[in-house]
């Protein structure tokens, strides 16, 4: 799974790891996959129970791009208002 590292200090993007990729479902559509981890406490911010499906998309590029964008939004929100 491709990994976007945003490095080492909570409160900045470097304090998070974003793992964005995709899978192909039974109908041939591409679904984005995402894992966002806050490094400071190793807390997984995404996925969580009841989280949205990222897609479907016709291309793997679109699915991965959507997952990365969602990851950035989650990090931005956590920086603004950290989940405890």
Features:
84 residues, alpha+beta, 5-stranded antiparallel sheet, 1 helix, 5 strands, 36% strand, elongated
Number of strands: 5
Roughly what is the average pLDDT, rounded to an integer?
Answer: 87
Relative strand content: 35-45%
User: Termini distance?
Assistant: 27 Å
- Shape label: elongated
Class from secondary-structure proportions: alpha+beta
The structural domain count equals 1
Rg is 13 Å
Number of helices: 1
Order of helix and strand elements from N to C terminus: EEEEEH
Molecular structure report:
- The protein is built from one helix and five strands.
- The protein has one domain.
- The chain has one helix at residues 60-80; strands at 3-6, 16-24, 30-38, 43-46, 54-57.
- Strands 1, 2, 3, 4 and 5 form a five-stranded antiparallel sheet that branches.
How do the strands and helices of this protein lay out in sequence?
Layout: E1 3-6, E2 16-24, E3 30-38, E4 43-46, E5 54-57, H1 60-80
Antiparallel strand pairs: 1-2, 2-3, 3-4, 3-5
